[in-house]
Amino acid sequence: MSGAVRQRWSLPAVYQALQSGFGAQNWWPADSPFEVMVGAVLTQNTAWSNVERALANLRERNRLDAQAIVRTRHDHLANWLRPSGYFNIKAQRLKNFCHWYLAAGGYETLQQLETGALRHALLSVNGVGHETADDILLYAFERPVFVIDAYTRRLLARLGLYRGDEPYDELRLAIEHTLGPDAALYNEYHALIVRHAKEYCRVRPLCGACLLRDGCPAVPGQGAAGRL
Question: What count of other Cβ atoms lies within 10 Å of the Cβ of residue 132?
């Protein structure tokens, strides 16, 4: 059939190809579950390198602690978070999160909650959306919740596995159903997707060097190129 694309890719096959090509990613880069949570709040709408600079500012001032953040003046906190962008908004969101975190009893108490209840509680915090909540669930609490971000939508849509514009939870649940509940797998898979999307499956993709180019409908000559 002229112009037909050989259907090769499935979610497990994509994972195997990325894992073979890139190796273990060892995410999330943090020294404690609380640092993961702070990073998840700060990484909204910015590059991780910027978050690292903001985290370093907090660490240098011994403020990478929920109680210390709550006690810190807003203008001081905002200045330390300046590298992460939207620093006034993020300072307020981080304070909101830390107030909630302390009132909820901290990590040991929250760890005892069932995943659905913990997710609901996280989403109740002003400034915590679905992606941020799921980052925290997966990387801080090691719960089997797949993180959906722009990289995931772009890659899986280009491969023809999903449309890419599904509602957040619809896409998350579909992926979890296919892969089965496995926090370690979700951790590594999401990290691999982020790396691949940054290096190859960009907004303007570098298809020539892509590990997944064989059978990808977005590659010129192999099907309709969805530019997401």
Answer: 22
Residue 5: pLDDT over 50 = no
The pLDDT assigned to 220 comes to: 86
> If we measure between CA atoms, which residue out of 136, 162, 156 comes closest to residue 147?
136
What are the φ and ψ backbone dihedral angles of 167, each rounded to 5 degrees?
-55, 150
For the chain, the average pLDDT equals 94
For residues 39-51, give the mean pLDDT: 95
Q: Is 3.40.50.300 the CATH classification of the domain at 33-140?
A: no
Q: What's the CA gap between 7 and 161, in Å, rounded?
A: 10
Say yes or no to pLDDT of 61 above 50.
yes
Query: Taking a C-beta distance cutoff of 8 angstroms, is the pair 17, 211 a contact?
Result: yes
- CA–CA distance, 31 with 84 (Å, rounded to integer): 19
Q: Where in the chain is the domain with CATH 1.10.340.30?
A: 33-140
Q: pLDDT-derived band of residue 228, with 50, 70 and 90 as boundaries?
A: very low
- CA–CA distance, 2 with 145 (Å, rounded to integer): 40
**Rounded distance, CA 170 to CA 22, Å?**
28
User: CA-CA distance, 49 to 181, in Å (whole number)?
Assistant: 30
